[in-house]
User: Which sequence fits this backbone?
């Protein structure tokens, strides 16, 4: 780089420094006081215009949050800029909050390309703690997610079979089950406790007050807090940095200390114990040093500005620095003269590790390049799941694409077990694949759940909720408001839009209404002809499939459908008019005069709620509900104007799955919806199918999945007697066996019977 380029780059960095404040995120009172002292001294030097002050930010702010996880979020949301993190917490910051490392701590006075320290297990010298009796001991962890205090030791205990993982995505539960009592700061944060069901005894030994309790700001959090937890007799064991013991017992590093290093020993992975000075022979892993991190979206001049500031701060306030007498950046004082309340502070490692001697610039290395490949093995052990991949069976190419997006989204959150997406092509094939053990899951409409349970022995384990937690929906008949003459009693020569053959909303309820209102009087096996004669044309996706209609006639059952080529009238999202939203679209685009849909379908697709081209500028008051008593009402009056109730869509799996296997499946879905149920935030939405398709994997109106109680996890109990009666009422008119799907006409049956009798008599 030539001199001119250097000047231009420096000017850009300077412009950055002057254009916005540099904000350091602190997590407790001690850090806030130290940060304020640092800010004061920098401003004094800035105003004095001392040489080199141009590298300092014009404005420096100390942003306070309750714990490191809130700081990460603040940096991601551009409410803060910098913080120091352990390498394990740095992984979380990079993976979940899009942060990157700038510089790293070096605990030696000479440059080191990759500074490290060791994780050690510390016990009191007079205790009887051994690896083989840890399950009866109390443990004080520095914080969840830290490399030295959580990841490396716990992963080794898992690998050596001391801790057993029974559930996926439930490492905190597994550890809390193993140890007798513990303080695990951060274990109740939303990421590590998304359902709020981590056992509260993970915080039993913590002593923080109010909002600090059991957070990374707890008095027993951090390496110094965890040390005191054991040293003062509350816990039997803790996992620390190897240099923490010297820091807490050395009178020079910790003036006034009453702790003596001979009172403590190291517990080694080989079951032996050693003196605290033998950490090279008795450790739980060598770890990369702590790092200063910022948002990964900061551009090059901003990053350069941060680095210039940090380098100058170390030159001035680091060991042997020009202004070390005014402020020591790598020391945690008990008091600071800038503190108006004159608090006595006992916390160590304020803002930086106290053992730090210098900072190293790691260039453009990503987090993963910095921590190295060994770290991946540690994470794999921590994310161990006692289950193979959960295989979701999809029925269209569009569903497969969404399934693959869901797979990647879940993987990005480290959810286990991983998902796999298998193409079945239609619901019946998927049911058979699940029965035979070649797939695990599919989301089915109530009509399909009947077939899945009766013919294939599948069971519902989780149901969609549409906002009222009833796990049901109402089927309604919708017509255009301007079409005043249409009612449920004069369907003759009209055009019908129905969500799909065999479905509760698109077949079972509508057909029973046709029969109830005497639109036709069906005979055995006549119902397809009856519908074809009642309506001029229809769109009933799948109505010409041999599985449901072996005679594959009349063709006008599909003439109203919109998709072209092989997609036309398919019983999946390839047909534009498939499903409840598709049926309403059929009505909107004047493909039909009446649409049978779900009670929220019109509201969800009008008044700007659906941004698809076909739904734009559609007003809800252009449509009305048709009631069984002949009235027509506003679309919101579905409580008094509906055709019947249907159980909501449900996730089904093999009836041969054990309770534990079903728990694992439910847990990964439940964890997933904690991150991806919103249709607003994030890049992936479980309950949204975009503008081109509808109801991919889940129905779009769903807001959550709810677990079905174990005593209702069978198709009969889930569907209920009334709905099953409606299904079975249609059997004699369709002549399709619910048990085999085979179609036997009366005449064919007689032929077979005569043939059989002839053979018996011969």
Assistant:
């Amino acid at each position: 780089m030539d001199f001119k380029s250097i000047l231009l780059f420096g000017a850009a960095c300077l412009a950055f420094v002057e254009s916005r404040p540099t904000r350091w995120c602190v997590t407790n009172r001690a850090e806030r006081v130290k940060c304020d002292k640092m800010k004061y001294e920098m401003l004094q030097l800035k105003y004095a215009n001392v040489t080199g002050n141009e590298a300092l930010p014009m404005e420096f702010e100390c942003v306070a949050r309750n714990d490191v996880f809130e700081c990460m979020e603040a940096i991601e949301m551009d409410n803060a800029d910098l913080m120091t993190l352990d390498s394990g917490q740095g992984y979380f910051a990079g993976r979940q909050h899009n942060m990157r490392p700038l510089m790293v701590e070096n605990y030696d006075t000479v440059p080191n390309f990759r500074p490290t320290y060791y994780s050690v297990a510390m016990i009191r010298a007079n205790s009887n703690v051994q690896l083989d009796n840890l399950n009866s001991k109390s443990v004080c962890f520095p914080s969840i997610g830290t490399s030295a205090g959580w990841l490396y030791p716990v992963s080794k205990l898992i690998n050596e079979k001391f801790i057993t993982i029974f559930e996926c995505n439930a490492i905190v539960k597994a550890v809390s089950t193993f140890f007798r009592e513990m303080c695990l700061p951060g274990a109740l944060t939303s990421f590590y406790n998304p359902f709020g069901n981590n056992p509260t005894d993970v915080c039993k030994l913590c002593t923080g007050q109010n909002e600090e309790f059991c957070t990374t700001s707890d008095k027993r959090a951090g390496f110094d807090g965890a040390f005191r937890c054991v040293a003062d007799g509350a816990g039997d064991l803790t996992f620390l940095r190897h240099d923490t013991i010297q820091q807490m017992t050395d009178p020079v590093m910790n003036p006034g200390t009453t702790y003596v290093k001979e009172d403590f020993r190291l517990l080694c992975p080989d079951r032996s114990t050693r003196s605290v000075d033998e950490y090279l022979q008795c450790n739980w892993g060598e770890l990369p040093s702590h790092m200063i991190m910022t948002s990964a979206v900061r551009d090059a001049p901003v990053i350069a500005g941060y680095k210039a500031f940090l380098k100058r701060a170390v030159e001035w306030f680091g060991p042997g620095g020009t202004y070390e007498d005014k402020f020591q950046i790598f020391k945690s004082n008990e008091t600071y003269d800038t503190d108006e309340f004159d608090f006595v502070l006992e916390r160590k490692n304020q803002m930086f590790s106290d053992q730090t001697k210098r900072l190293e610039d790691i260039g453009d290395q990503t987090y993963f390049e910095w921590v190295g490949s060994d770290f991946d093995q540690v994470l794999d052990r921590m994310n161990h799941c006692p289950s193979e991949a959960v295989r979701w069976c999809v029925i269209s190419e569009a569903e497969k694409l969404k399934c693959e997006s869901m797979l990647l989204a879940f993987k990005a959150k480290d959810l286990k077990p991983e998902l796999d997406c298998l193409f079945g092509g239609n619901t019946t094939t998927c049911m058979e694949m699940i029965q035979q053990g070649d797939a695990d899951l599919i989301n089915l409409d109530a009509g399909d759940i009947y077939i899945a349970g009766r013919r294939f022995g599948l069971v519902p384990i989780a149901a969609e909720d549409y906002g009222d937690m009833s796990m049901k929906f109402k089927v309604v008949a919708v017509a255009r408001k301007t079409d005043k003459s249409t009612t449920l009693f004069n369907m003759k020569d009209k055009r019908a839009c129905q969500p799909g053959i065999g479905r509760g909303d698109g077949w079972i309820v509508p057909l029973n209404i046709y029969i109830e209102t005497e639109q036709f009087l069906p005979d055995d096996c006549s119902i397809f002809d009856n519908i074809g004669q009642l309506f001029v044309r229809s769109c009933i996706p799948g109505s010409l499939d041999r599985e449901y209609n072996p005679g594959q006639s009349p063709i006008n059952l599909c003439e109203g459908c919109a998709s072209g080529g092989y997609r036309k009238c398919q019983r999946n999202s390839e047909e534009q008019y498939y499903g409840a939203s598709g049926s309403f679209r059929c009505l909107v685009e004047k493909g039909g005069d009446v649409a049978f849909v779900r009670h929220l379908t019109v509201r969800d697709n009008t008044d700007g709620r659906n941004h698809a081209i076909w739904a734009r500028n559609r007003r809800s008051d252009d449509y009305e509900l048709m009631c069984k008593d002949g009235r027509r009402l506003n679309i919101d009056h579905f409580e008094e104007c509906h055709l019947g109730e249907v159980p909501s869509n449900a996730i089904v799996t093999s009836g041969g799955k054990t309770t534990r296997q079903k728990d694992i499946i439910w847990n990964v879905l439940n964890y997933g919806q904690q991150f991806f149920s919103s249709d607003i935030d994030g890049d992936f939405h479980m309950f949204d199918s975009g503008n081109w398709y509808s109801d991919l994997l889940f129905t779009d109106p769903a807001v959550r999945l709810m677990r079905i109680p174990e005593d209702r996890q069978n198709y009969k109990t889930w569907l209920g007697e009334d709905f099953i009666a409606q299904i079975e009422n249609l059997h004699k008119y369709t002549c399709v066996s619910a048990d085999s799907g085979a179609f036997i006409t009366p005449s064919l049956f007689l032929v077979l019977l005569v043939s059989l009798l002839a053979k018996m008599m011969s």
Observations:
- Residues 1-18, 742-762 have pLDDT under 50 and may be disordered.
- The radius of gyration is 33 Å.
- The longest strand covers residues 116-124.
- The chain is about 35% helix and 15% strand.
